[in-house]
Amino acid sequence: MQISNEDYQQFKPLLFSLGYRMLGSIVEAEDIVQETFLKAYQINEQKIDNNKAYLCKMMTNRCLDVLRSARYRREHYVGPWNPEPLLLEKSSDLDPSEVVLQKEGLSIAYLRMMEHLVPDERAVLLLREVFDFSYLEIANIIEKKEENCRKIFSRAKQKISRVEGESLNYEINESIINRFIQAFQTQNRDTLLELISENVILYSDGGGIVKAAIRPIVSLSNVLALLYGIIKKVPEDFYFEVKNVNGQPAVVIYMNGTVHSILSFYICNVKINEMYMTMNPEKLPI
């Protein structure tokens, strides 16, 4: 059995979804999907028993290589690092790639927490929890013993336990964000206190390209002071929309006719616990 054009159509969404979750980068994930299929097409003599497993193995191992080589870049990144936001359509009439992407493990909070995992932990966690591979299949993909994969998964789960309580109900979260926007605009502090944790943290990602806070902003008063400071300086053509970003509602901010930034949220126990403001133009849709 060889890789065919039908396999490309069938498995491309799966591979992109895996790569994006592994790397937090749309461009890198797309590049590795193309690279994976190009290499797979060139295989003539080797017998492939399971095309899906074979392609996932190639994709995973290439992502692991990229993660290991990218560690230096991540460690020297200017300011907080946020995953590249993925704008999705809210419509129920989705194409296959969006159906795959709408599953769990896609939120900015989840992907950001993945940065606390070493590459092997990231791969095992995603393959098991998000893509529902068996431990035997995972062992074959990353070339480790099945028992080792179980231990890696357990260790990874402990490291990201903080996002286990994240609310993923789109409608409820959208209501919270719309109330936050209204309270922010009217400076209704009582409602803001109701909606936002006192210990809220804002991670502002400018990547050293545009001006952004180079350290996380901690506490409700400091976060609000930063946001109000930004609003005071916006041009007249400033506007925003609440859109589906990574399967959750987020605020997409436009200035001078282009996307200026995207503000995503980590909501837990009906409160905003973290905010992620991505301003790095290399991570924003054109």
TrEMBL record:
UniProt KW keywords: Membrane, Transmembrane, Transmembrane helix
Segments forming domain RNA polymerase sigma-70 region: 8-71
InterPro entries linked: ECF_Sigma-70_Domain, NTF2-like_dom_sf, RNA_pol_sigma-70_dom, RNA_pol_sigma-70_ECF, RNA_pol_sigma70_r2, RNA_pol_sigma70_r4_t2, RNA_pol_sigma_r2, RNA_pol_sigma_r3/r4-like
Name of a matching Pfam family: Sigma70_r2
GO biological process: DNA-templated transcription initiation
Segments crossing the lipid bilayer: 212-231, 251-270
Domain RNA polymerase sigma factor 70 region 4 type: 109-160
Gene Ontology terms for molecular function: DNA binding; sigma factor activity
Assembly and oligomerization: Interacts transiently with the RNA polymerase catalytic core formed by RpoA, RpoB, RpoC and RpoZ (2 alpha, 1 beta, 1 beta' and 1 omega subunit) to form the RNA polymerase holoenzyme that can initiate transcription.
Protein name: RNA polymerase sigma-70 factor
